[in-house]
Structures are given as C-alpha cells and as structure tokens.
Input
Amino acid sequence: MATIISIINYKGGTGKTTTTLNFGAALAKKRKKVLLLDFDSQCNLSLSTGVKNSEKHLGHVLAKKATIEDVIIKQDLYSIVPSTQELIDYEFAINNEPGREFIAKEFLEPIQDLYDYILIDCPPSLGTLSINSLVAADYFIVPMQPENFAFIGLDHLIGATMKVKNRMNPKLELAGILFVKFAYRTKFAQAILANILSDDNLKDKLFESYIRQDISVMESPAFHKNIFEYAPHSRGAKDFKNFANEFIKIYG
Output
C-alpha cells in the first residue's frame, strides 16, 4: 500500500515542484516505486520530467474520460501523471459534483498497491484539487523558504489542513516543514527558525534536513532532469538524499 504525500503550500515559489521532483527521485534511488502527480495547471512538474503536451493527462481522469492507469507515464526512475494548462477548467467542472473533495482518493485507490510512494505536487492555492490531495493523503509536507511573511502563511495553511483532517480525512498528518533555499547563517533564516521552534504545535514538525541554496537545483528542471541526473555530486543531491533518509527513518 502506497504512502500518499501531498506537497503543499499556497504561497507560490516555495519549492513545491522542486521538492516533489527531487524527493521522488531520492526515494526512487533507494529502490522505492514512486508515482508523481502534477496537480498544477502550470505543469512545472510535468515539464521538469520532460513531459510536454501529453495526449492523456490528469484532466481526463477528473472528467472520467480516462482512468488513472491510462494516463500514467513510466520513466526510468519514477512514473508521472502529467497535468495540462487547461486543468483549471477541469477543476471548475467538478466543483458542483457531490463529494468532489474525494475524487482523487477514489481514482488513486486502484493503484495504491503498485507503488511505495505517491507524491502530489499541489497548485499554489487551497482550491478543489489541493483539498483533494489532502483528503487522499496520509501525510503532507510544507516546503518553506525563510522569507518575509512565510510564518504567517504557514499558520493559515495549518489551520486549513486541520479542518480537512477533522472533517474529511482523520488519518492526515503533517509530516513536517522542509526548509528550501536555506542559508542557515543569515539572520533572517535564524529568525524564521526561532519562530517555528517557539510554536508548540510546530516545533516538533521541523525536519532536521534542509535544502541549501544550490544553483544546480534551480537549473536542473530546465534540462528536464532531477538533481541526481543533473548534478549527482552537488549540495542539492546530498541534501535531498539526506531528506529522503530522514523521512523513511521517521515514517517508514
């Protein structure tokens, strides 16, 4: 049975796609069977894996024009369910369906035994698809850059996810907060870190691993590669490997 993980933060540019891609690659390199789902109409995860304008995509699954098995694209390290730039239209179309929050949970059930991990790259909003990812997930990870207002946005996100847990998915848990583009020695980074550590609800949910600033991590998606393919000896590759090890150690 796959562990389903939602990678979510409704602030844009927080490293959701980078985390999904490279965390997935790190797990796959440990011989785990990994499926990546692109829930974002910007299609950044799809493009990062070299998938562009796929004939079959997540929108077809939402519209019940295809099954999840029909749209999975198998690659060397992992498999991916690509998105489409018209995904917002498909999302809008399901908004009036009864039980719309459970659609992803339902279409993922037939394939859960085929994978060890299913990672969902969420859009930068708490719309229907993001809620779907949380209803289907066992855990959610919040990538977070040490930047202005990041802590305020985090409070709103945690509040929303707890409503999902209480109303729709009792098993949902915050796996942790992952710092990305992290420069530990800067005063601002240390101030954000201190804020989280002073919060009783969050201080035990901060991963010890963090992803340092690394140009290779930024460049690799442009070449349709994960960090292990693009720069296997980089700081980014080392950091994502450490993060995968920490996650497995904590959550199995």
